[in-house]
Amino acid sequence: MNRPKIDYPCEWEYRLIGSDEEGLHKAAAEVLKTKQYTLSFSNISKAGKYISLALKTTVADEKERNDIYVSLRKHPAVKSVI
């Protein structure tokens, strides 16, 4: 299977899923620290239990992209990252 070619640096979007919007905002701030990013509402589950936010930031290379992904996944407020 061929991997898509990604030209770095580029803007990358992560979808954060959790049960607490404030917790997701805190997770983004803690992981990205001083890095510029935008965080916007994306969706809410039918039952209202989960919310998703779109996190956009510029990544310099594949390592940084993956490191951010792993750090977000490890944060206790984040149930899933897409």
Explain what you see.
The chain has 82 residues and is an alpha+beta fold. It has a single domain, classed as Alpha-Beta Plaits (2-Layer Sandwich). 30% of the residues lie in helices and 34% in strands. A four-stranded antiparallel β-sheet has the order 2-3-1-4, with helices on one face. A hairpin with a 6-residue loop joins strand 2 and strand 3. The longest helix has 13 residues. The model has no long low-confidence stretch (mean pLDDT 96).
Choose one word for the global shape: globular
What is the domain tally? 1
Question: For this structure, what is the CATH class?
Answer: Alpha Beta
Strand order in space, largest sheet: 2-3-1-4
Report the CATH superfamily. Answer: ACT domain
Q: Please provide the count of β strands.
A: 4
Alpha plus pi helix count? 2
Strand content: 25-35%
Largest sheet: 4 strands, antiparallel
Helix and strand sequence? EHEEHE
Radius of gyration: 13 Å
**What is the structural class?**
alpha+beta
Residue runs with pLDDT of under 50 for 5 or more positions: none
Which second-level CATH architecture applies?
A: 2-Layer Sandwich
Arithmetic mean of pLDDT: 96
Main attributes?
single chain, 82 residues, alpha+beta, Alpha-Beta Plaits, 4 strands, 30% helix
Secondary-structure blueprint:
Elements lengths: L9 E9 L2 H12 L4 E8 L6 E9 L2 H13 L5 E2 L1
Antiparallel strand pairs: 1-3, 1-4, 2-3
